Amino acid sequence: MLQEKEAELRDISAEVSKIEKTAHRFGQLKEQHDMLNYELNNLKQRLAQTSFQQTKEEIEELNKKIETLQKTIVEARETQTQCSAKVKDLQAKIADGKGHRERELKSAEEDLKRSKKKSEESRKNWKKHEQDFETLKLEIEELQKGIVTAKEQAVKLEEQIAALQQRLVEVSGTTDEMTAAVTALKQQIKQHKEKMNSQSKELKAKYHQRDKLLKQNDELKLEIKKKENEITKVRNENKDGYDRISGMEQKYPWIPEDKEFFGVKNTRYDYNKEDPQEAGRKLKKLQDSKDKMSRNVNQKAMVLLEREEEQYKEVMRRKKVVEDDKKKIQAIITDLDEEKKKKLKVAWSEVDENFGSIFSTLLPGTQARLVPPDGVDFMKGLEVKVGFNGMWKESLTELSGGQRSLVALSLILAMLKYKPAPLYILDEVDAALDLSHTQNIGNMLKAHFTNSQFIIVSLKDGMFNNANVLFRTKFIDGMSGVTRTVNVANIKRAAADAASRGR
């Protein structure tokens, strides 16, 4: 019965392992689903900020500049036409007469100079704008090429978006299926846990029954010993009786010779033909002999012997049953011991690895291990070995007080890491350490306990610098006060580390 329960327990453990793997796969698919959503949003933002949109805005701006330049060219040409007309008018006035020419010659020459200067400036501006126009034309051609490229990129991005959306739909479908599967698996886990609890109770009852059987076995052994002593005593008494009978047979040789005729008819031992008086005398004589013999021979010895032999056989049968049960129990104990040994070996390996890693973080350049003493199995005990740059110390007494404190702290934290808790409270564990060791403790906690929270009481800055939130107590005007300070940099760094681990 117990072996069947253990087989069921192993099957349940295997099923739980499969369920945990399925849950892990669900977590991976959900993470992939979130990542695809993130990539889709990024592609949409990139499409909104693509060079196609920027190029389109630049083209519109350049078209506006071209229109402005064309208007400027038209205005310059109109100004040139007006100046030419004015020159012709001045030339006509000069032809009208010498007097008028003399009066207005100077003014006309000045106007002519100004007009020529303005015309020259307009011509230069026109040439400059014409060059700008050519430049803008080339830029427009380049921008048009960029538009074509941007359109191609937009088409590719739309294809990528469509593919990602399709993939997102597939992953969403898979996620829904996995969600339903996980829900069903959680229900199975709950049922298996209930079954395991029931089997644990049965196993506990079996252990109780085993203890009870062991106790009964001890009691039966004691009873068997008593019965064996009684049987020995009865056999000794029986042997004494037989010895006396044998002595009488040796003393009276006729007894063995005539023994077979005792009570036989027509013999001298035919008690029916015996003379009563003679028989009485013989009876009295035999009675006297019996009385004498009864003092030494137990007449009930044979009856007691038979009864004791039956009891002995029953006890031996019960003993065999107990021994068979004992063998089964011992086999179970052996299996449990082997399982315990395997679990302890796994725990030793993990704690040893964490112990060395944590101690080397607290005290760089050092090594630490948990090893069994020479010639002793690890089940008998382990001892701490510490080395500095490859040189191993013979004993912890060679270490300083601070170093021994770090060894003890590393060992405690390594054991806690084997079976971690969500919250730890440390009260001035760095009181006997210098600042460098205190700083190393803070770094070690951040590196090795990323999924746990610590409440640490400390009086040293090396520990403060690693805190995400710092509570300071003050004594102001006869009253205690508490201030809360948030280390934003540490919180952002922790969030970034968590995000990187999530990817």
TrEMBL record:
InterPro entries: P-loop_NTPase (IPR027417), RecF/RecN/SMC_N (IPR003395). It comes from the Eukaryota. Pfam families: SMC_N (PF02463). Residues 183-475 form the RecF/RecN/SMC N-terminal domain. This is RecF/RecN/SMC N-terminal domain-containing protein. It comes from Anopheles gambiae. The lineage of its organism: Eukaryota, Metazoa, Ecdysozoa, Arthropoda, Hexapoda.
